[in-house]
Structure formats: structure tokens, C-alpha cells
């Protein structure tokens, strides 16, 4: 026997002995796991034992235990701890990436790679599709490097990408990926593996898809296969995992029979699902069961039971949000909220369907739900820079400063055409820093106990609070369709509360599609061309007017198209009066803003004024001011074109801030003004809670039909130095994304004296993503913004009048009087109606 063969035999013997010893240790720990955890009914006790076992294990088995622990946290709705443990497992797995090696030398376990896919599925459930896709692709690349072509371990990420495609609404791609996974499974040669584990994932998703697409025979086939695959739940699956898996399958069966109008079987399977899910709160199964039960009772005509289930559903969701928002970044909150929002919309659609029966308890719940969730993402983000800076926590302050720098760097990368990989790296750093700051500052705690009765108590005689909701009508044929159970038909609903209301009044505004299409186009055209408009008043207001007789002041929180028009500019064709002459209108992000305690202002009034920035020469040496059209807007069709535009000088803005400074100083205000080379982005960022912040320059909002770039980056204002040859730390473009970090917590009024600063991307139920969102997040009490391109001279006059009155009147009264004054010289609303004030 050759020396080489002898050495090889010796190595194999050593490896086998090591493997046997490792196998014995792993077997002992596994027995402990099974005895102490798998059969443990007390979930908290089981989790404690899992943590204990993890501390005494190593290698792949430790990753396995981590995944079991994280899975338990996720299944019970504790996403914060679930993410922490899943991430630990993922990081550990990354350190164990072996080289490509023949599987017959070592029996490589797939457990270590499961960490990639488990974390991917976790983010998928949270709605973070971007991160989920990255993880599935990373897992696929590694598995294809390590495992042979017919290994079952290659299939996990393919199934994950199929689930991702389903969430994206890419149904053909979903079928393609799942069929690819099925074909690979049929050819797989891996032994001692629970193939049903993969089957359950994609069979459940395929059943969901077929029910949504009304492919009932296919759904029945997949349900049967799913039941077979779930008959032998994984050998080491936890008890809680088995119960929840069974509950989800039973709920799917109930849904299938409900679509077939077999209500008896639907109720049977729902009751069984509830039994398996009992005692486990805020799970995926909990929400699905409640929703399906509510729909079943609705279809059977049991209104009281349907209403009660819907109320329990939305309250459970609010508790779920309250539990899990802490520690998430703003992006993650946004994505997580949207995974739940479909059911919120369904609740509103159900209420629209049955409103004629006047279910007063539901009207009350709907209003409470609105004020606790509408603009929720905006409200929990509202913290102000000084909260961090005044904390005394040097580590957190350092993180925040780095966070601000990276946000500025990110916007520069977008506007300068940075590489996609570089942009993504910066986004990941920002996301991680934001989460750390949120956890450290505990700034995301919020109280969701606001009620419509509290809003009512905040009103005076002659006042009304109005919440506008955009609602899709229910699809009565298939309440489980791909649009979340709703049709394309749109209506608007107003919930009205007066001082003497016994319950919120419910008013339907029909023809929502017309209001968003033909009617909106007519309104905008009449404004821009300065024509008389005798149509829009009846379209947008008359249905509500009769329900608000005797009301002289309205606090209105808009939605959808009502965020794109200024009601004050509507003319009553009968009386020939404008809306502003009939009612004192106050725009709010949420009527719950009436409950906010007003911050005590400083005895010394301060103002920071910015106007006529020096944009400087372009890189080619061309002069700045080759456009003098009197408009404070830019027309770039995409971000990369913005800096290439010839940016017009705005001499009126310098006169504007000079006049404002003189007026305020005459009333003993401390005023700092910036113009020319000092009107920089850096100086705006350095303001510290002035009583008034006034910015007069060019505004922009760049459309993005593909919805790839954050709308908070696509909107902003232009400051000094944007065309400078020598680049500084700031690029002269202050985006809404950066403006969220301004310190405006004691600021009474922010005035964005530019074109279209109120525009942005309208996200129904969440407000407008753009400058208006940024300024409110930064803490300002009131924001004055424009909805269309404004005339330079008329705007300057409006602002001068506003500030003459501001020194002796409140912001809202001064603004209204300034509008009425300007109307005397410029009668058409194009001139005096471009600006609206949002606040309280």
C-alpha cells in the first residue's frame, strides 16, 4: 500500500471518529431539545430553555437552535427579538461558509444556510422585499457553489424567490419559480431530509394565489397536497409551530369553502383553526382567522358578529403595530405598515358596503382607527433633532451626526449619478444607524388610545372635525382577490364629528374615479389658465355642505385627491362666493392633532429667512440667470437633469425677505437673513428651532413612474452653490429626505415660498410624501406650502402682507387675511390660492 493511500485512510479514520464524537454530542443536545423544548407547552419557559441550550452548543447545531428560538419569537408576534436572533444566526452562518467540496467527504448540513432563507422570509413577512430578495439571491449563490446539482439544499432560495414574486404581484413568475422548485425536488437525490418542509411553503402560497385568482380546481388540488405534506410535521418542529401551521391550513380550507358558498364547511374549518390558534396572540393565523370569520358572517347576513370580528381585527393590528414599531427604521416601519394596510382598507370597504344600516359602533371604531393609524408613519417619526442632541448620550449623538452626513451623501449620490452598489451600501448604513438611534433614544413610543370622543371634546360650538378617506368598494364575488378583496371602483367617505355629535356622521362622496381624473384635470386647468370654475365646488364640496350646516370652522384631514386641491379656491356657482368666504378651513394631517398640547414658545421671537440664493455659474461657465420667467419652479424630468437646468434668478425673493426682516425687526423680533452666497443648504440645516423659518427659492418635485427612487429624495428646494464648480459638503439641493432632520420642534411656522412645495407622492391614508411630510416630521407646528407654480410678484406681496399681520396675529389668521387682501388686486385663485397652511 502506498504512503499516500495510508495517509488518506488515516485521515478518513480521524474524520470518522471526530464525526462520531460530534454526532454523539449533537444527539445528546438534540434529545435535551426534544424533551425540554419540543414538548414544552409554556412558550416562555421553552424559550428560556432554548437560550440555555444555545449557550452550551456550538457549530451548526447552535445555528439550528438560534433559528428555532427566532422562529418562536416571530410566530408569537415579537418581531424585534425575532430579527435580533435571526440576524445572529445569519452572521454566524456567514463565518462558516466552506469552500466547494465533494459531499462524500463531509456530510454537510443545510442548517447553516437555512439562516439566509429564514431571515429572508422574516423580512418578506415584514414587507421588506428589497432585503428579502438580497438574502434569497445570496443563499442561492452560496448553495449552488457548495451543493451538487441534485441536492435538495439548492431549492430553498428558489422557493423563497417564488414567495417574493407572489408578494410583488408577479404571478407568472411565481408559477415559474415554484414549478422550477418542484421539478428540482422530483430529481433530488438527497436522503434523510424532510421534503415536506419545502412543500408546505410553496403549496401554501400556490393555494393563496389560486384562491385570489379564482382558480378553484387548482386550489383544491394544492390544498389536498398541502394537507398530505403537513400530516408529518418536521420531526423536531416545536409544538407551537405545529399548532400554528395547522391553524393556517385550516383557515385556507375555510376560505376555499367560503368561496364555494359552502358556509357550513367554512365555519367548521374556521372553528378548528381557532382551536389550534387559541392562547397564541397576534400571530399571522390570528389575523387571517379573524378576517375570514368576519367575511363569513357578512356573507351570512350576521351583521353583529361580522362587525365584532372586524373591530377585533383592527384593534389586534393596532396592538401589533404598537408592539413592533420600536426599533425599526423609518423604511422598515413603512414596509411593515403596508403589509397590514390591505386589511385596514378592507375594513373601510366593508363599512362602505353596509353604512346605510347605520352601524354606529362601527362608525365610532372607524374614526378611532383612523386617528390612531392615519399618518401613523409620520407621527411616530416626529421627534426633532434636539431630542437626540440634548440627551447627553455621546455615543448616540455621534451616531446621529454620522446618520445626518450619510443622508446628505445619499442624496448627492442620486443627483450626481452614483453607482447603484454604492447607493445601496449607503442605504444599508443609514437603515442600521437609524435603528440603533431609535432603540437607544426610545423615541418611537406612542400612545394609541385616542378616541373620537376626545376630538369631540376639543371642539367649540360651530366647529367640526372632518376625516376624509379614500375607499375602494368591496369585490362581493371574491373578497380574497389579488387587490385585497376590493374592486377598482373608488369612493370617498367623510367622517364628521361636531361638539354635539352622538357618534361620528358618515357621508359618502360618490364617483371617486371621476374626482381623481376628469374633475381634477378640469380644476387644475381652470387654475392654470385663470378661467372661471363653476364645476369643482359641486364636485368636491356640495355632498358635504348640507351635512355641515351651521358650521363656521372646519378642521379637515384630507386623503387622496383632497390632498391635491385647495378647497378655499372653489367657487359656489349659486352664491358666487368662494369657499374661503363661507367657512374658516384648517388643514390638519390628522384631526387627532387637536389633542396635542401646544408647546410654550420663547418670549423672544426669532426668524431665519432665506432668499435669492446665489446659484453660481455652471461648470461650463454659463451665466446663471438666463431664465427670468417669474416662476419659482424647475422642470427637470429626472434627477440627473436637475443640476443641468439653467436656473433662473429670483430677484423678487430678495425683496421679499428684506421686507419681512424689516417688518419683524420693527416688532422686536431677532431676525437672521441669508441671501446670495450665504443662502446655503448648510445654513438651513444649522437653524435651531426659530419661531419662523422662511425659504424663498426654487422648489421641485420629480416624477418617477417606476417608483424606484424615494419620493422624499425627489422633492426639495434649490439653495446657493448648486451650480458651483468647486464642490463642498453640501450640493445645494435640500431634499425632503434631508429636511426631516431639521430642528423645528419649537417652530411655529415654516414658509416654503416656492413653486409646488406641497406636491409629492400621494399615498392614500399616509399623506403626501414630499416637503410637507418632511417639515411636519421635523416638528413644525404649521407649514405654508404651494400646490402649483406661483407668480413671483404676487407671492412676494402675499408674504409681505402675511408678516405685517404675523407680528400681532396668529399664523393661521394672518395667512387667511393675507389671502383675502391679495385677492383684491389678483382676483383669480391662481394668484392667491396657490398656498395652503397645514398644521394646528
In short:
The protein is built from 34 helices and 16 strands. It is of the alpha/beta class and 840 residues long. The chain is globular, with a radius of gyration of 30 Å.
- Structural class of the secondary elements? alpha/beta
By oligomeric state, this entry counts as single chain
CATH topology of the domain at 605-839: Rossmann fold
Rg, Å, rounded: 30 Å
CATH class of the domain at 605-839: Alpha Beta
Shape: globular
Please describe the structure with a list of short key phrases separated by commas or semicolons.
six-stranded mixed sheet; Rossmann fold; five-stranded mixed sheet; alpha/beta; 840 residues
Describe it.
The protein is α/β, with parallel strands linked by helices. Among the domains are: 384-441; 452-594, no CATH class; 605-839, Rossmann fold (3-Layer(aba) Sandwich), CATH 3.40.50. The chain has 34 helices and 16 strands. Helix 13 packs antiparallel against helix 14 (303-324) and helix 14 packs antiparallel against helix 15 (330-354). The longest helix is centred in the first third of the chain and has 36 residues, at 3-38. The radius of gyration is 30 Å and the shape is globular.
